[in-house]
Amino acid sequence: MSARIEAEWIAVDWGTTNLRAWAMGAGGETLALASSDEGMGRLNRAGYEPALLRLIQTWLAPSRATPVVVCGMAGSRQGWIEAPYRPVPCAPVDGQGLTPVPTADPRLSVHIIPGLCQRDPADVMRGEETQIAGFMAETPGFEGVLCLPGTHTKWVRLKAGRVTAFQTFLTGELFSLLSRHSVLSHLMAGEGWDQQAFETALDAALAAPERTSASLFSLRAEALLEGLAPAAARARLSATLIGAELAAARPFWQDQALAVVGAAAVARAYASALTGQGRPVLTTSGDSAALAGLAMARALMKETT
Question: Which CATH number is associated with domain 1-126?
């Protein structure tokens, strides 16, 4: 349980595996941060309010409803309440579009930020729209392409403050599946990383993305025949998948201003891959962008009420 703090409002990022909350002060300052492993994947619909209260109840004012602004999978069809997608082109966050959540505890006033959707080609995002809004708040006037690497990496076009198009790649999930549940899993021991192996495999994947499946099996063969080191195997698996993604996403990153928004390690991998192709890249933290986006949503809510 969190320490006793009376928050002006509370920002929440509710993912599939984790729940994070920030107690926010009246001047926009962060008073406290708390997290738990009660993500969407561990909850049924009735479990959301109790899970949130376990984390933030010591931040709630006793005599008023504290605003709670939520992004992420709590707004999915399997989440707390479905927050319908907003179609692009549109601003990433709209204060009037937030979905209110009925709660049993009168100390809560919860609203969920909806995700974005695209009809052709069909695509969706949920949670990333808040990071995009935060990036835009932190980088005024940016026009170009954002890469948001993660389990499902997003490439997003931004123009005049609006998301105009995006595309999702399953790269992070494929890495997880292959490294844990495939014939390559026994090659991934330890935490080492071979940057030279990453760069070489990335160049090969960009040059011949159609060889992705064959290149992946060659890791197993080299381990059996040549004793391929785990650090090199892990780096080459990552590079082969990222390289195939970059080859397919080339229309997004060629001749565009570029920024990568995400967790430090994966953001570095993508930034390294792109700078290796002669493309300058701005990088920023996914956590700071998410919090800035939640703050933007709260400010927009106040303007429209």
Answer: 3.30.420.300
